[in-house]
Amino acid sequence: MAADGLTYTIVDTANMSTAEIYGKVLCDLAEKHNDIVGLSADLAKSTKIGQFAAKFPDRFFNAGIAEQNMFGIAAGLAKSGLTPFVSTFAVFASLRAAEQVRTDICYPKLNVKIIATHAGTSFGQAGTTHHCTEDLAVMRSFANMVVIAPADGIETANAVIAAYEYKGPVYIRINRGFDPFLYEKSDYGFQIGKAVQLKDGTDITIIACGAAAYNAYHAAGILEKEDGLSVRVLNMHTIKPIDEEAILKAVMETRRIVTFEDHNIYGGLGSAVAEVIVKSGKACAFESVGIPDEYAIIGLPEDLQNYYGFDQNKIVEKVRQIMGKDFEQTEDWEDEV
Amino acid sequence: MATQNELFASTIFLKAALPLTKVILEYRPKMAAKYKGLNGVVQFIAKDEAGDIGAYLQFTDGVLDVKYGIHEKPDIVFTFKDVKTMNAFFAGKPAVPSIKGLTKFKLLMKAVNLLLALKIIGRKTPPKKAEDRELMVRLMLYLLPLGISQLNKAGHPEISKFCKKSPDRTFAWSVNGTDIASYLRMKAGNSKAGRGKYTRSKPFVEFKFDSVDGALGILLQTTDMIEASINRILVIEGSPEYGKEIGSFMNTVGQLAS
Predict the structure, then answer these.
(1) One fold for both B4-122 and B130-256?
(2) Is A289:A310 a contact under the CB 8 Å cutoff?
(3) Are A213 and A239 in contact (CB under 8 A)?
(4) B199 touches chain A (CB under 8 A)
(5) Tens digit of pLDDT for each residue in A110-141?
């Protein structure tokens, strides 16, 4: 992490949701950089940019429930030399305001940072209208856009700081609520476009982003201990530009790749990885796991993670299936008495 | 005829609590030594219009096995007039069975001693000796998942409904600094209770007690749950909503067994 003095540890973040960590980091950044301004569309409290609004009321603009206008305003502010951080729910940023993000921000490559919360199925109980399982696909297709899906609060802090330092549009998607901590400290070498190898292995590579990265890391531990499998785990926090080098290395060294994401399987992490593999012309067993071609059902996030196959046990099960191993040796349901 | 609740309680006693007598002998080698070479079958039967129910202790050269059902040729038979009376007997309340096979005095005394030792799980206060406290926690943490699993298999409405909807998940209990651990695996209506750590997957919810005494405080409900959480006497790792559900099933087992 490059910005001086902005380091976050598990102790700092233990009692904060991922969005609250974002709010705190933005405040810390704004103390140092006067060019930072904030915008929201009546969701300052939920997206936690409200922390910034409370601390810097003269630098915050509430556009009301008018996301398209908000992104247009952000484009204008960026054009005048400011660095807008715009926060709303992922579903509104990527779908309702898609045209303004594309034409007003990405086309002229303006320096706008979009921090979209409640992404994927993390707002599971709120219903399908508030899920967002298309944003990676939409944002990835906009030229000039950098797309990041951090794994936890600490990585969100790193991503927000890196987004400020990068000149151009950045889309960061974070979850609603608390994410389990994958990292204990922020100095693990976060770089936009560079995957983090969480575990080395030679049998298979799991590539994951967002909430699935934590699950993948712990699933790999179980697979190693219980099945003797050597599982490489890549936290592919940046979906665009994707780390082609890490993917091709995995193709050559493990020959099997499986991706896990809280997103539709069309157009997200799995698609991005598949494009790299196909382009390389190298043979590799490949599967992608995420929300299939449907709108996600309603439920608690942990249930949806299981239902769509990217909680720890389902990741374990999928890898065992790929490697030809059953979850249990026998389906014996007799209690130990 | 026994009520549904009486049948559920008998499930706990016969299929979850009585098998713990084996654990007592495993962790009480001095006591186990007294059973060396013992042979015989001690049957417990409750009469019921819908069909008698029972379980038996079978000693083969000193090795104990506990089976659910009616043995063809038991040496000693404890017969209860109904399921309610049998439940009261196992709960330590006044209840008198008729006993056949009193002439096999040695076998009778060995069986009674085991039942008396099993009463430790019904204690309202912690035992004085550390080894007794450890055994009590071990038995209780073995009883809870086994009781929940057996109630699922017996068709307990709330537990079966929960289990039916469950994907492949494991719920676990453990006590820091000891080998006391148990688990309950559920998958689409199936359930299985086991002892020790389940290592084939990460528990969906794990109840981690900081110590034997900490666990006893919670299990005997002498420690406030909020205080226990703040002081990390009990750390519940995993989904809080599901932790609460399992907690209520633990209470169900406890209530049925009392």
Answers:
(1) yes
(2) yes
(3) no
(4) yes
(5) 999 999 999 999 999 899 999 999 999 999 99
* pLDDT tens by residue, B156-195: 999 999 999 887 788 999 999 999 999 999 988 999 999 9
Cα nearest neighbour of B195 on chain A: A336
A contact test, residue of B146, B160, B200 with most A CBs within 10 A: B200
Percent of chain A with pLDDT over 90: 81
Structural domain boundaries enclosing A76: 10-173
For A131-172, the pLDDT digits (tens) are 999 999 999 999 999 999 999 999 999 999 999 999 999 999
Strand, coil or helix: what is A109?
Answer: coil
Residue of chain A whose alpha carbon sits nearest to that of B165: A303
Do β-strands A231-235 and A196-199 pair in parallel, antiparallel, or remain unpaired? antiparallel
Spell out which residues of chain B touch residue A336, defining contact as CB-CB under 8 Å: 146, 192-195
Q: Which CATH superfamily is domain B4-122 in?
A: SCP2 sterol-binding domain (3.30.1050.10)
With a cut of 70, say whether residue A15 has pLDDT above it: no
Do residue A336 and residue B195 have CB atoms under 8 angstroms apart?
A: yes
Asked if the structure places residue A330 within a domain, the reply is: no
A332 touches B: beta carbon within 8 Å: yes
Picking from B193, B201, B241, the nearest residue to A222 by CB comes out as: B201
CA pseudo-torsion sign B115, B121, B126, B128: positive
Tokens of B169: 């998940």
**Inter-chain contact B239–A302, Cβ cutoff 8 Å?**
yes
CATH node for B130-256:
3.30.1050.10
pLDDT at A6 over 90: no
pTM for this predicted structure: 0.73
Query: Which chain B residues touch A332 with a CB distance below 8 Å?
Result: 192
Q: Are B199 and A222 in contact (CB < 8 Å)?
A: yes
> How far does B177 lie from chain A, in Å, by closest CA?
21
Residue B251 is inside which H or E element, if any?
helix B240-256
CA angle B47, B53, B57 (to 5 degrees): 115
Distance in Å, alpha carbon of B3 to nearest chain A alpha carbon: 25
Q: Are residues A143 and A232 in the same domain?
A: no
Average pLDDT for runs of 10 along chain B of length 258? 96 97 96 96 97 97 96 97 96 92 95 95 94 97 98 97 88 96 94 92 88 96 87 86 90 92
Residue with tokens 């994907």: B167
Q: Where are the domains of chain B?
A: 4-122, 130-256
Rounded to 5, what percent of chain A is helix, strand, coil? 45, 20, 40
